[in-house]
Amino acid sequence: MKILVCISKTPDTTAKIAFTDNNTKFADAGVQFIVNPYDEWYALVRALELKEAGLASHVTLVTVGGADVEPIIRKALAIGGDDAVRVNADSADSFFVASQIAAVASEGGYQLVLTGKETIDYNGSSIGGMVAELLDMPYVSLATKLDLAGNMASMVREIEGGEEKLECALPLVVSCQKGMAEQRIPNMKGIMGARTKPLTVKEPVAVDALTSVVGFELPPAKTGVRLVSADQPEELIRLLHEEAKVI
Prior knowledge:
By secondary structure, the protein is of the alpha/beta class. It is built from six helices and 13 strands. Helix 2 (70-79) links the parallel strand 6 and strand 7 (83-87).
């Protein structure tokens, strides 16, 4: 069985965020980029665990982006992916990205497609569901556990107030979150081997983007804390009625 793992490049969580061109583009100068943690720590590592257990034969990585994404792909390959596909396109539109991933998945005959629950920059959480729809496959979101037995997958996912256990026949698309696996650090052997692992570059399929970025806006700066003396409850009530804002 072949597994396809979706990989995305995201800014490090400690990066200072700024925008250029009248707040229409992300200013990436000096920003350190990483593999999206949900993709790396949970989707990729769980795919590798399934392969190591003899339940999968091959793990391929796929990403949509320009040549600047390749160092990120190589890091993911160092963790243990067998090969990778980069679709040579740069788009923030979820439907466009999902369409490119679906095209790669359909050509490669993958029985399981794994993705992180969301990226830490856009937090869209939409790619997995779109990919599943485009491939006409079942989709399970927010999975914390995934096991395989023959042609069946058993999963656990979080729902409001508890957990839900599911079983589904392959092929299948699953988005992964915390609990699915534990982070792995690439070792020197993996880093050296990643340099020669196959990385195929494909041109994008013709798809019209459904959305475009109009502009970015930083959240408002935090304001100071208002302290009210314990012997002035009337003032506290007044502030709550007149000045407090519900976020």
